[in-house]
Structures are given as C-alpha cells and as structure tokens.
Fold:
Amino acid sequence: MTHPMSQVYLNGQYLPPDQARVSVFDRGFIFGDGIYEVIPVFGGRLFRLAHHLSRLDASLAAIRLRNPHTAQEWNSIFTRLLEKDGKDDQSIYLQITRGVAPRDHAFPPNITPTVFAYAQPLKYSPPEQLAQGVAAVTTADIRWARCDIKAIALLANALLRQQAIDQGAVEAILVRDGVVTEGAASNIFVVKNGRLITAPKGSFILPGITRDLVVEIARAHGINCDELPVKLETLSSADEVWLTSSTKEILPITRIDDKPVGNGKPGPMHTRMFALYKDYKQAFIQGKAD
Ligand code: PMP
Structure:
C-alpha cells in the first residue's frame, strides 16, 4: 500500500506509515472503542481548531476517556505532521482508542490510550458536483442513539453511504421517526421560502463544525436560520438542500430519491452562502478569523 504522507504520529512517535503498528488486541480493533476527529488545514493553518478540540473533549468525556494532551500539545503534534512543502490544502485525521487489553467488554484498569494521527492532502469534491449539485437518497437512520459522539464505530454509516453509492447517489440522508437527522457523513440544510433549517443539536446528530459555521455566517449576515426538526415533507418540498462537512464544505443536493430538488439546479441561497463561506476561509488564511 502506498501512502500520501511521509510520516504518521503513533503514541508519541513520528514514523513512516509502514512502520506504525497497533496491537490486534487494541480495543479500537476489537470493539470500535474509540473516537476520532478530522480537521481541515487551509493555507497551512488548522481551520476552527478550538472548535474541533472542544468536540474532541466532548467525545472523550462521553466515552469516559481522559484527554491525553493539552491543546498546545495537540497543536504541536498536528503542526509537525503537516507537509511543509505541500501547497494543497490538507486535513488532519486523529483517532484515540481506549488502548490494548485482553478482550473483555468492561473497561480495563490502568490502560494507556492509543493515539494515532496523520495529515493528508484534502480531496475536494469534483467541481462539477459543486456546479450541478449531487444526488442523495433517503434511508432509515439505523444508527445508535449517541450520534453526537464522533465514534470510530462507523459500520452503520459505511453501510448507508454504500447503499447511496449503489443507487448512483453521493450521500444518504438519514431519517429517524419521520425526521431528517443528517447525512451518513455530513449535516443537512434545507432552504424553504428564504429560510435555512437544520436539525437541532442533540444525541441524534454529530455537531458538525461546518454546520455551526454555516449557522454562524447566516446569522451574521441576516439570513434566517432555524435549528428545528426537518420533517420528511419539508425535505420533499424544499427549494434547496445542502450537505455540509469539513471536507465537502457546502455541497448542493439537487436530486433526492430520483426527484429534483426545487428546479433541480443549485439555488441562489447556496451561491450566496458559499461565497460568504469562501470569504470566511480567505479571512482565516490571512489570519483574520479562527
Ligand atoms: N455528520 C456526520 C455523521 C459526519 O461523519 C460528519 C463529518 N464527516 C459530519 C456530520 C460533518 O461534520 P464536520 O462539519 O465537523 O466535518
């Protein structure tokens, strides 16, 4: 296997990817007992780092793991992983598992967490997806009831995403009890009569950093934005639907279940929001935003 990065971080060491080894008894491998983060890097700077670190704290607290590093330590680990000569935008992947112990569901005492991180070039969505929008399918949200934890156990998400791909779509829009929660790996926004609506935070969605930024930007520019349950009927009658994530940014969804969203083209609100988002990113690259 070839790797796009020259080194990875594993438990205090910086190693060539092929030399990084984790025990088969790691609880991440055995139970999916761990959490992760993905942090985009624009212009060599870690985008919204404080927000990502506070979500990391929340995920760790939820699975009863102590944060093994201070914010400053994380910053220096991530910075060392960034490809210095890499002109492209990058992303940091960070994973913390409970560590290595004989297989037993109960937490072992005195266990040392496994900490793994790497940087890689950021793979943006193809420009035609941004220009024309993408297709999505609705599926039952078969995940557990703690989707707010950024858990590495992503079997349901992977099954749902693959189901979308098998149906020629890019993302699965998950529906729980008639209400849209989020995408398999993204948050969902609906535009209806000039207002934005996205699911409220809680245990059924991951609190996306991009979601929060879109809400923040909307409110700063006088765009109405409600954090309210999105019923399936609201999705079907929406003027626009978007997905948001750190790596896909803000992507228009123009077909859902083989039917056009609105007029089947990315809408004016997306154009406006994406321009505002790019302005924010530019200000960030220039050191004028966090
Ligand atoms: N929901 C889920 C289930 C996700 O996996 C992700 C991230 N891939 C998101 C939402 C978006 O979060 P963020 O904007 O922080 O990338």
